[in-house]
Each structure stands twice: as structure tokens, then as C-alpha cells.
Design a protein that fits this description.
about 80 residues, mainly alpha, 2 domains, elongated
């Protein structure tokens, strides 16, 4: 029998692997037409595939920048 913490880590890893498979299978189902949102979506998928927390954090920061740019652009466009 595995120690409890090791079993929990294995269960977590298995759950993350299953999520990643679901994401990969759904990725092309509804392509995002807006290029700014597509960039955010791509980064979110890559975050799920990241092997280290530092890499995921770095990509999350980029995703936030892209999302802010999209919101700013959308607000400017709707003002006119």
C-alpha cells in the first residue's frame, strides 16, 4: 500500500492528465474567431501542459496582458 501523500499525489497527477486529454480533444471543436482571444486561449492550453509552476506563472502573466489588451481594444471599439 502506498503512503497517503504519495497516493494523493498520484491521484492528482492522474486527474490533471485526464483534464489535459479533455482539453486537447475539445481544442478544435469551436475555434475562436477573435485573434486576441485566440492568443489567450492558446496560452491557457499551454499553461495546462506546463511542466513547472514557474513556466505556468510566466505564461499566466502573458495571458493576463493579452486579455487586458483585448478588453482595452473592445472598450475603445464600443465607444465609437
Amino acid at each position: 500500500m502506498k503512503p497517503r501523500s504519495q497516493a494523493a499525489a498520484t491521484a492528482t497527477a492522474q486527474m490533471l492528465d485526464e483534464r489535459l486529454l479533455r482539453l486537447k480533444s475539445a481544442r478544435g471543436d469551436a475555434p475562436i474567431q477573435n485573434p486576441r482571444l485566440a492568443e489567450v486561449s492558446e496560452l491557457l492550453h499551454r499553461i495546462c501542459e506546463a511542466k513547472t509552476l514557474d513556466t505556468a506563472r510566466w505564461m499566466a502573466g502573458d495571458a493576463l496582458v493579452y486579455l487586458r489588451n483585448y478588453i482595452s481594444f473592445d472598450l475603445e471599439r464600443n465607444r465609437d
